[in-house]
Amino acid sequence: MQTVSIRPQGNPQAPAAAAAELMCSGHAACPGCVEPLTLRHILSVLGPDTVAVIPPSCMAIIAGPQPFSSLRIPVYQPTLEASAAAASGLRRALDAQGRHDTQVIVLAGDGGTYDIGFQCLSSAAERNENILYFCFDNEGYMNTGAQKSSSTPHHARTGSTPAGKTTRKKNLTEIMAAHGVPYAATATVGDLADLRRKVAKAKAMRGLRLITLLIPCLDGWGVADDGALGTARLAVASGAFPLYEVEDGQRWTLNSAPPSRPLTDYLALQRRYRQLPAHHAEALQAEVDEAWSRLAQRAAATA
């Protein structure tokens, strides 16, 4: 377990304009990765009075080995399964110091959220801990060789499912909504206005808030080096990753239009779906259509 000082990183003599940028250049992300771009906008909304919990993940590599950091906010690195518990402890420690307005956030991958860290997250949701949890969802254990996670979509090929995953992707947002947490949402940097609005909305709330962010992995998905942003946008346009938000487990709001592109357009961008049999593509399209219909009904019922 590694820690850093609770004092923000960076040169105290830096000009104000530079100090406002909370993510430094020279980080260790893969060229073309949209994860640091996504985090840059998140931090610009949250501001410097923020403490981040980062478990082992791509984000831990991007943030850098302690005591060095590419972030100008305090960073605490717990074990992979303990993010929500660590954030809960930090939240209570800050509250005891009277620092109630300091945001405690988690920056975790899907492996540390959907899978290994889910028990801890579910417990924090049951207690309604006052933390803001961001799941950078690249749909697999990309940091260790692109193995499948429970976030990996149906029929996608990974290092541990070379013939294609035989089960569907877990729906984390619906699961968290079932906990009745104040806020659960999906977002992508491909729709920047929607992303920043949701971060600002979550910042103003109290209790456990979770935003799942789609992060196309260039190497793990087999996407072109300059294709991550376009892939994220096409995921929304095809309905593979609809944008929506759920408040208090009751109010469902769709933030993206009905699918306007066939799912095959989205699949064609990714090596992990290369040579996908036609009947599997049709089954995936049916899954997307069914999921969108269910979301639309819930949104209409709680409008």
Short description:
By secondary structure, the protein is an alpha/beta fold. The chain has 12 helices and 9 strands. It has one domain: 3-Layer(aba) Sandwich (Rossmann fold).
How would you describe what is shown here?
There is one protein chain. With 303 residues, this protein is α/β, with parallel strands linked by helices. The chain has a single domain, classed as Thiamin diphosphate (ThDP)-binding fold, Pyr/PP domains (Rossmann fold). It has twelve helices and nine strands. It has helices at 16-19, 35-46, 58-63, 83-96, 111-115, 118-127, 172-178, 192-203, 218-221, 228-237, 263-267, 278-301; strands at residues 2-3, 50-53, 75-77, 103-109, 132-137, 183-187, 209-214, 244-247, 251-254. Strands 1-3-2-4-5-7-6-8-9 form a nine-stranded mixed sheet, sandwiched between helices. α2 (35-46) packs across α8 and α4 packs parallel to α6 (118-127). The chain starts with a strand and ends with a helix. The relative contact order is 0.11. The model is unreliable at 1-19 (pLDDT under 50).
